[in-house]
Amino acid sequence: MSRIGKAPIEVPSKVDVTIDGNTITIKGPLGQMTRTLRPEVEVIREGNLLLVQRKSEDRISRALHGLSRTLVANMVQGVDKGFSKNLEMVGVGYRAQVQGKKLVMQLGFSHPIEVDPPAGIEISVEANTKITVKGYDKQLVGDVAADIRSYRPPEPYKGKGVRYAGEYVRRKAGKSGKK
C-alpha cells in the first residue's frame, strides 16, 4: 500500500469540495480548481476528510495512487493558503519592478524583459532584487518561477543571474594566471 496514498487529506472548514465521478472541484478563499482523475483511483469524502483509494492492485493503479492523493492535497492547500516561490537576482545592474501586473526586469541585455503573469498568479518585488511568485496552483507557480529564472540562469564563474532563494550555485575556478 502506498504510504502517501493512504494518508487522509483534511479539508478546512472554508474549503468546499464537490466530487462528480472522477472529477473533483475544490473552491476556497483564493480560487477554484477542477481536476479529472484517472479511472484507476477514486476519491471518497468522509466528514471533513478526503480519502484516495485505488480500485485494483495492478501496477498502474499502485503508481497513480500516491500521485493522485498528492495532486488533490495540493489543490486543497492551494485554494486555502496558496503557494509561493522566491527568486533572487544577483549581479550588478540586475533589478526588477512591477508595472501594473507585469514584471519588468533589467538583466544586462540591451532591452528590458517583460513577464506577463497568467491568471491566478501574482508577482511582487521587494528591494529591487527579490521576486515573489504567488498563486493557488502549485504547478503554475513553479512554471512561472522557472520561466523567470530561465531568462538569466545563474552562471558558475561569478554566480550572476536569477536563482531560487536559497539555491546553491556551484562555483568554478576561472582561468589560472600565467606561470
Task: Please describe the structure with a list of short key phrases separated by commas or semicolons.
179 residues; alpha+beta; 3-stranded antiparallel β-sheet; 2 helices; elongated
Characterize the largest beta sheet: strand count, sense, and whether it forms a barrel: 4 strands, antiparallel
Shape: elongated
Order of helices and strands: EEEEEEHEEEEEEHE
For the secondary structure, the number of strands is 13
Distance between the termini: 63 Å
Total of DSSP H or I helical runs spanning 4+ residues: 2
Roughly what fraction of the amino acids lie in strands? 35-45%
Average pLDDT rating: 90
Structural class estimated from helices and strands: alpha+beta
The helical percent reads 10-25%
In which order are the strands of the major sheet placed? 11-12-7-13
Q: Any low-confidence stretches, pLDDT <50, length ≥5?
A: none
Global Rg: 21 Å
Task: Describe this protein's structure.
By secondary structure, the protein is α+β, with helices and mostly antiparallel strands. The protein is built from two helices and 13 strands; from the N terminus they run E-E-E-E-E-E-H-E-E-E-E-E-E-H-E. The longest helix has 22 residues, at 59-80. The radius of gyration is 21 Å and the shape is elongated.
Task: Explain the layout of strands and helices.
Elements: E1 9-10, E2 16-20, E3 23-28, E4 31-36, E5 41-46, E6 49-54, H1 59-80, E7 83-90, E8 95-99, E9 102-106, E10 113-115, E11 121-126, E12 130-135, H2 138-150, E13 161-164
Antiparallel strand pairs: 1-6, 2-3, 3-4, 5-6, 7-12, 7-13, 8-9, 9-10, 11-12
